[in-house]
Amino acid sequence: MTPTMIATLTILTAIVVYGLLCWVAPFGKHHRCRGTGVRRTLLLRRMTTCRGCKGSGRKRRWGRAAYAQLRQIAHDAARAKAARERQP
Ligand SMILES: [Zn+2]
Question: What is the pTM (predicted TM-score) of this model?
Answer without folding.
Answer: 0.68
